[in-house]
Design goal:
Layout: H1 2-24, E1 31-36, H2 40-52, E2 57-62, H3 65-73, E3 79-83, E4 87-92, H4 98-131, H5 135-143, H6 148-168, E5 172-177, H7 189-211, H8 218-243, H9 251-276, H10 279-293, H11 309-314, H12 317-330, H13 337-361, H14 370-373, E6 375-378, E7 388-391, H15 392-406
Parallel strand pairs: 1-2, 1-3, 4-5
Antiparallel strand pairs: 3-4, 6-7
Organism: Streptomyces actinomycinicus
Region (Disordered): 118-162, 384-407
GO molecular function, one term: ABC-type transporter activity
C-alpha cells in the first residue's frame, strides 16, 4: 500500500523529469564551430557571437573552406562559417546533428542581417556628411563641369554607381550541406527513433538470458546473448535501412555497431540480474532507459544538453551507441574510438558478471540439489556390495509403522 501510494508516484515523477528537463534546456554549450579566414569580417563575427551568446560556441580557425570541410568530415567541428565582405557561406553537416545544422544556418542569417544593417547605417552617415559639405566645394565642382552633354553622362554614371552601392548593401547567405543526412530521413527522425528502442530491446534480451531455466551453464547464457544480439541487430538494420533508408552507408559496420549496442545493454542487464536477482532488472531499466536514453543527445547533440548531463550520457551505452552509429554510418568511423571503447567496456563487464555471477552469489555447481539432499544412504544389502539411496521421508514412515506395531 505504501509502495503504491508513495514510491511509485515518486519514481514516475523522476522518470518524467529525466526526459523533460534536458529537452527543456536544449541550448548550444561549447559547440565546436569553424571560422574560415582571419580577416576583419571573421574577427568581427567571432566577437559579435561571443558577446551575443557567451559560452555557446567553441571557435576553431581554418585557412580556407577546404580545411573547414575536412574538419567537418573528421568530426572536429559541427560546421563552419566562411565570411567575406559580400556573402556568408554556412558549411554544415545535417548528418552530425540536424538541430545544430539549423542553428548554424540561423546564425549565418543573423550575421548577414546585422552586417547589412551596419553597412546601410554607414552609407547613410556618409551621405549626410556629404550633404553638409562647404558651399565652396560645390562651386569648385560646378566650375569644373564641362558642356551639358558631359554633365548628363556624368549624372548617368552617378546613378549607375548609386544603384551598385544599393545592391552591394545586401549580404547574401549560402548554406552548403557537407555531410547530408539520408534523403529518406531529412530531419533525422527515423535515426533517433531507431536508437531509442535498442535500449529496451537490449534489456529484454538480457532479462531473458538471465532468467531462462533452460540455460544452466554460464557459457550457454553468453552464447545466447551474442547470437540474440546479432540476429536482433540484423532485424533492426533491415527495418531502418531496407525499409526506411535511414542508414545508407557502411552496411556491415553499421550492423556490427547495432549488435555491439544491443550487447552492451543486454550483457549489463543480464549480469546485474545474475548478481542481484529480480531487483537487477529494475536497476538496469532505471539506469539505461531513464538516464541513458534521456541523456544520450540522440535527438539533438551532446553539446546541446546541460553541462554534466552530456558527459553522463556519453559514458552510458545509449549515448555512446547513438554517437558511434552516427560516426560509422555517415563519417566513416571518424572520432569513433572513444564511443567504441565505452560500449566494449560495458559489454566486457556484463559478460564477466554473467560468467562469474554464480560464484559471487554462492550458486555454484557444488551445491547439492534438492533430490540428493532429500535422500540418505542405507547400509548395503547383504550380497550386493552397494548402498541404497532411500528418500529420508520414506525411512521415517517405516520407522513410524514399526513403533505402531510394537504398541
Amino acid at each position: 500500500m505504501v509502495i503504491a501510494a508513495v514510491a511509485l508516484p515518486i519514481v514516475i515523477t523522476l522518470a518524467v523529469m529525466a526526459f523533460a528537463w534536458p529537452a527543456g534546456r536544449i541550448s548550444p554549450r561549447d559547440v565546436p564551430v569553424g571560422i574560415v579566414g582571419t580577416g576583419p569580417a571573421s574577427q568581427h563575427a567571432v566577437e559579435g557571437l561571443t558577446r551575443a551568446k557567451p559560452g555557446a560556441f567553441d571557435f576553431h580557425l581554418y585557412a580556407d573552406q577546404q580545411a573547414a570541410r575536412s574538419a567537418i568530415r573528421n568530426r572536429d567541428v559541427y560546421g563552419a562559417l566562411a565570411i567575406s565582405g559580400h556573402s556568408i557561406t554556412v558549411l554544415k553537416a545535417t548528418a552530425a546533428s540536424p538541430s545544430v545544422a539549423q542553428l548554424l544556418t540561423d546564425v549565418g542569417q543573423h550575421l548577414a542581417d546585422k552586417t547589412t544593417q551596419q553597412i546601410a547605417e554607414q552609407a547613410a552617415r556618409q551621405k549626410a556628411a556629404g550633404a553638409h559639405a562647404p558651399a565652396k566645394a560645390h562651386k569648385q565642382a560646378a566650375a569644373q563641369r564641362g558642356a551639358a552633354q558631359q554633365k548628363a553622362a556624368q549624372q548617368g554614371a552617378a546613378r549607375q554607381g548609386g544603384a551598385g552601392a544599393d545592391s552591394s548593401v545586401k549580404i547574401l547567405v549560402k548554406a552548403v550541406d557537407v555531410v547530408p543526412v539520408a534523403a529518406e530521413d531529412p530531419r533525422g527522425v527515423v535515426f533517433s527513433s531507431t536508437v531509442f528502442p535498442l535500449t529496451i530491446c537490449g534489456i529484454l534480451i538480457g532479462a531473458f538470458v538471465a532468467m531462462a531455466r533452460g540455460l544452466a551453464r554460464p557459457r550457454h547464457r553468453v552464447l545466447t546473448l551474442l547470437v540474440a544480439c546479432a540476429v536482433a541487430a540484423l532485424g533492426v538494420y533491415l527495418v531502418a535501412q531496407g525499409f526506411l533508408g535511414a542508414l545508407p552507408h557502411n552496411h556491415v559496420a553499421t550492423w556490427g555497431i547495432l549488435s555491439l549496442d544491443l550487447l552492451s545493454v543486454g550483457a549489463t542487464a543480464a549480469g546485474v540480474i545474475r548478481l542481484l536477482g529480480p531487483a537487477g532488472l529494475g536497476l538496469s531499466a532505471a539506469v539505461m532507459v531513464f538516464v541513458g536514453n534521456a541523456f544520450s543527445g540522440a535527438t539533438s547533440a551532446p553539446e546541446m544538453l546541460p553541462k554534466g548531463v552530456d558527459h553522463i550520457g556519453q559514458w552510458l551505452p545509449p549515448g555512446a551507441g547513438a554517437s558511434l552509429l552516427r560516426d560509422t554510418t555517415y563519417f566513416d568511423g571518424n572520432s569513433a574510438a572513444g564511443h567504441l571503447a565505452v560500449l566494449a567496456l560495458w559489454s566486457v563487464c556484463g559478460l564477466t558478471a554473467v560468467m562469474c555471477g554464480h560464484w559471487v552469489t554462492g550458486k555454484g555447481r557444488g551445491t547439492k540439489t534438492g533430490a540428493t539432499a532429500s535422500k540418505e544412504l542405507l547400509p548395503a544389502v547383504p550380497g550386493s556390495g552397494e548402498a541404497l539411496s532411500v528418500p529420508r521421508h520414506a525411512h521415517a514412515h517405516a520407522h513410524a509403522r514399526r513403533h505402531d506395531g510394537d504398541g
